[in-house]
Amino acid sequence: MMESRDITVGELYDQFVAPTYGRFPIHPSRGKGVDLWDEDGKHFLDFAAGVAVNSLGHAHPALIEVFKNQPSDLIHCSNLYQPRSQGELARVLTDQVVQAPGKCFFTNSGTEANEGLIKLARRFGEVVPSSSGKPRREIISFLGSFHGRSTGSMAVTGQEKIRAGFGPLMEGFVHLPFNDIEAFRNALTEDSVAVFMEAVQGEGGIHVATPEFVSAVAQICQERDVLLFFDEVQCGMGRCGDLAGWRCISGAAEIVPDGVSWAKGIGAGFPIGAIWFRDRPAGALSLCDLLGPGSHGATYGGSPLACEIGRVVIDTIASDNLLSNAAVLGKSIIAQAEHSQLPMISEVRGLGLMVGFQLDVERFEKSTTLQSDGRAISVAVVDALSEAGLLTVPAGADVVRWLPPLVVCQEDVDKAFGIMEKVLNHLMK
């Protein structure tokens, strides 16, 4: 057998790994906090954080402690049983995150979590039909949204490029302009059963829901008995300055959704997703009891190890004051960006540690230095930043995302701005 070092990482991927990702030629080897090193010892400032996954940064002591101790007790057991760790995490999500009566179901990813919400909506539409007695099946989401890449979650995603080439997808989904109250109000029909919303659209380019829009959607949903789901996979778990991303929207703190999905930051690098269902009437049952035995499942969902990690992550976010850190540094980043007048950046927007830099595409297209090679401008800029030691994430064709770990500090932010200014000034030539 060929020794592992007899072949480069790039060759390994070319020969043995499916090309489902447009990967950058970076070969991570180890990390600590906000810092990451590749196989050759090159240092990177990690403002991608695994696309908002590494909420506690790399190799956080609290997580290392779980990995050292929990596996010696129990890694996995069947969901036919009742491990305490799953119940404890469900209690934390209900009491501390959502802060309203309800119940949880555990998955392995955000896509799985959103699939569960789709099933809940369909079941609710059966037991609470339209005035004509027909099951309600229409689910509404918003243009620019992203809810996953399975067939169901693609159908609810409001980006044609995600859905293209995979039809026919599930029927019954409507995609409306984001932050357009009248379009939403006018689109509701007798068949409408649920709404998916991100408080901040991540993959769509860091677009923040307006307070007026969130409040109006919540009120209309309540009036029409339409379920309101918040997709918190990227914007939740402290990323925007609160464990609940929607509570970071002005005036939305009192909103109680009917369902919430999480993943990414809740595991801080370990695969775990979760759904919360509200305790509210749904026909003869409660909404949180609609998916009864045999109606849904996830073999690996809610394992003792995953749930212990999730609980420790939430505890650490609270004990280390990371919510305040995200809120304060998020405002500092946007203010600093506006003050710095970064070249070739037309707008900076975001909430907490979820910041998007809108690229001036026309100016970049005139650059003789930037070699996009047919790639989106955002991808080419992210590549240039990574070569200079700053890891970021593209969002669509023209936005660069900063998604640093919640443990990031002002010194890290200053370093990131220094790299970004240097790279962008170079690309102006």
Descriptive report:
- This protein has 14 helices and 19 strands.
- It is an alpha/beta fold and 429 residues long.
- It folds into two domains: 4-59 and 321-427, Aspartate Aminotransferase, domain 1 (Alpha-Beta Complex); 74-319, Type I PLP-dependent aspartate aminotransferase-like (Major domain) (Aspartate Aminotransferase, domain 2), CATH 3.40.640.
Count of spatially separate domains: 2
Classified in CATH, the superfamily of the largest domain is: Type I PLP-dependent aspartate aminotransferase-like (Major domain)
Shape: globular
Q: What is the tally of helical segments? A: 14
The CATH topology of the largest domain: Aspartate Aminotransferase, domain 2
Radius of gyration: 22 Å
Average pLDDT reading: 95
Task: Fill in the keyword field for this structure.
429 residues; alpha/beta; Aspartate Aminotransferase, domain 1; Aspartate Aminotransferase, domain 2; 2 domains; 14 helices; 19 strands
Per-chain topology:
Elements: H1 9-16, E1 28-32, E2 35-38, E3 43-46, H2 49-52, H3 61-69, H4 84-98, E4 102-107, H5 110-127, E5 138-142, H6 151-156, H7 160-163, E6 173-176, H8 181-187, E7 192-197, E8 200-201, E9 207-208, H9 211-224, E10 227-231, E11 259-262, E12 273-278, E13 281-282, E14 285-286, H10 304-319, H11 322-340, E15 345-350, E16 355-359, H12 361-365, H13 377-387, E17 390-391, E18 393-395, E19 399-402, H14 410-427
Parallel strand pairs: 3-17, 5-6, 5-7, 7-10, 10-11
Antiparallel strand pairs: 1-2, 2-3, 4-12, 8-9, 11-12, 13-14, 15-16, 16-19, 18-19
Helix pairs in contact: 3-10, 4-10, 11-14
